[in-house]
Description:
Pfam families: ATP_bind_3. Keywords: ATP-binding, Chloroplast, Ligase, Nucleotide-binding, Plastid, tRNA processing. This protein is α/β, with parallel strands linked by helices and 318 residues long. It is 53% helix and 14% strand. The chain folds into 2 domains: 4-188, HUPs (Rossmann fold, 3-Layer(aba) Sandwich), CATH 3.40.50.620; 237-317, Chorismate Mutase Domain, subunit A. The protein is built from 12 helices and 10 strands. The strands form 2 sheets. A 6-stranded mixed sheet has the order 3-2-1-4-6-5, with helices on both faces. The protein has a 4-stranded antiparallel sheet with strand order 7-10-9-8. The longest helix is centred in the last third of the chain and has 30 residues, at 215-244. The radius of gyration is 23 Å and the shape is elongated.
Amino acid sequence: MKTFLHHKLRINLIQQLELCRPSSVLLAFSGGQDSLCLLKLCIDMQNKYNFNIGIVHIDHQLRKDATINTNHIINIIKALQIKSYIYQIKDSSYSEQTCRDTRYQIILQTARIHGYKYIATAHSASDRIETFIYNLTRGSSMDGLNSIIWSRNINCNMKLIRPILNFTRQEIGWFCRYFALPVWSDYSNINYQHSRNRIRQELIPYLKKYLNKDAEKHITTCLELLYMDSEYIRQNTIKIYQHVKHPVFIAINHPHLLNQHYSIQIRVLRLFFKHNLNIYTSHILLKKIILNMQKDTKEEIAHNSIIIRYNKTWLYVS
Length: 318
């Protein structure tokens, strides 16, 4: 039986993700309502669109019920007879960020080894809004505020997609109840020591009750507009970077770069260090570099293991 969310997903695949017929999809699966919803939708559409589905689950064994959760997922997989890849990691000293990075690398490696063209995650509109508010309180940039987007190219053969990014948590909850899906409840989601949980359980309901009942909808619209502006600036940043970079050496034509808007200068420099040296540069460092570029007598800037130097035309690294 098809629902309005089946129709919504088909529209997303065509309009947002430009996927008329996805060939093979590896679904990052936790057993929670979001990933179960996406899995059910994909299975229902599998016969019509004729694509392969795989499931990958990483168990960091950080929660007391982690093993039970994994066994629950195995039972789901057995019933559905879907290709699956389950990993268990036993180092309890991992931080949340380290776990996230490790999980990402394992998923990429699994997709690459088994030939999946798309990696699908079950991020929803609610996840997107919570991340936006969380990053806003941390003073993130435009790109950071809208870090959860519809898709991202991993390489020329693989793409990360988020097919249900405009599904709300209420819609997903209804879907799971309607089809009686065996949702695993993660008790850590009600732990208010995690800022995201407090945003989800307290701040967003407060905004909807006292400011605007359609607050989530309007924030989502704002994020879509923000993404279009950010994408336009990103494309221009790449064009200008190609224009000011040295054709052979790791260097940038700083007089040409100074002719650009400050926002572009920051972005080009950040791209320069990321592309050539794979290092993160803070806004404070980038601002210092730009101020130094504007001086008649330029000073060397030491940063970690590199030294940023200047001559009359070029900024270079040694």
